[in-house]
Specification:
The chain has 137 residues and is α/β, with parallel strands linked by helices. The protein contains two helices and eight strands; from the N terminus they run E-H-E-E-E-E-H-E-E-E.
């Protein structure tokens, strides 16, 4: 069976009560996954497809579950440790889950209560590490 990733979601938008605290959390938690803050501006920052802006009266903080892909079990473990060190709250220590054979994940709540996961689905061959999109000018 062939699986395709990177075709469904253009971006996910989170809203944070304390943008600097949330920015520090994601910068630390996603470092083991090789994901860094790519862009930042007044009241927002972006990491790949994840866009985070400051919450307001007209746009309250979000509450979602996000699962990030990890390259192996050790990366899931490193994510969990980094996320806790960056101010996250434990929501499920690293380990195998019953979802399917080989599912290994860890769960942490971010500063706004979003359930953030790193997951490894087991060995697999990827056609490419990511896609590259270059705008046509």
């Amino acid at each position: 069976m062939q699986l395709h990733f990177g075709r469904l979601i253009d971006h996910v938008h989170l809203r944070a009560r304390d943008l600097e605290k949330t920015k520090a959390f994601y910068a630390g938690a996603l470092q083991p996954l090789g994901i860094a803050i790519a862009n930042t501006g007044d009241g927002w920052f972006q990491l790949d497809e994840l866009f985070v802006s400051v919450a307001g009266d007209d746009a309250p903080p979000t509450h979602v579950h996000l699962a990030f892909q990890a390259r192996d079990r050790a990366t899931v473990d490193a994510f969990y440790a980094a996320a806790i060190a960056a101010g996250g709250t434990d929501n499920g220590k690293p380990g195998e889950r019953h979802y399917h054979p080989g599912y290994y994940g860890a769960f942490v709540l971010d500063p706004d209560g979003n359930n953030i996961e790193a997951v490894y689905h087991g060995p697999a061959d990827r056609s490419a590490p990511s896609i590259v999109i270059e705008p046509i000018l």
